[in-house]
Amino acid sequence: MTRPHIIGLTGSIAMGKSTVAKMFEAAGVPVFDADAEVRRMQGPGGALLPEIEAAFPGTTGPEGVLREKLGDIVFSDADALARLEMLVHPAVARKREQFLERHADRTMVVFDIPLLFEKGGAALVDTVVVVSAPAEMQRERVLMRKGMTPEKFADILALQLPDAEKRARADHVIDTGTSLEKTAAQVQALVDKLTADLRA
User: Fold this and answer.
1) CATH number of the domain residue 16 falls in
2) Is 83 in the same domain as 19?
3) Do 96 and 114 fall within a single domain?
4) Count of domains for the chain
5) β-sheet bridge partners, residue 66
6) What single string gives the DSSP state of each residue in 138-166?
7) Are strands 108-112 and 5-10 parallel, antiparallel or unpaired?
8) Which of 79, 137, 139, 142 is the most exposed, fewest CB within 10 Å of its CB?
9) Is 27 helix (H, G, I), strand (E, B) or coil?
10) pLDDT in tens, 141-198
11) pTM higher than the cut 0.85
């Protein structure tokens, strides 16, 4: 069975990855958003709720996973986090397979995977695209987020591969330290290039 060319889209926190994912969609490329799938499966009536409640009693309710309660358990305990990932990752992998089946006739698709390098996801994709912006712009954007503190930001960065290393390992880099129009133009140019290369 033929399958589409898979673009792995990644980038550190507040680099503009979600914005770039929307630009790929606007350019006609279907996007699989791993985080959005997890939020759905952990939201009200979500498929993962019974398993999460069984593994971590008291961490779900009618509104879905109680993120703070679950976070308090898993972020301070590596074994608990590993148990949670054992529930979440196979479920996401099934959704990803279904997405590929639905879009089997497309030239290319995007997998939006925040921790693409950190979790070994680069092996799943054909082309890696890293979204990047200057560090001071990243910091400015992230500290505007509700509930974000410099300490939390430092903790998140510590879990992520440094931006310079991501750029070095990328096949293509989209610069979001510029206007939205210029970023969209970079995305469209990349889609055009990959489309031409795949047809050649």
Assistant:
1) 3.40.50.300
2) no
3) no
4) 2
5) none
6) HHHHHHTSTT--HHHHHHHHHHS--HHHH
7) parallel
8) 79
9) coil
10) 999 998 888 988 888 888 889 999 999 999 999 999 999 999 999 999 999 999 999 9
11) yes
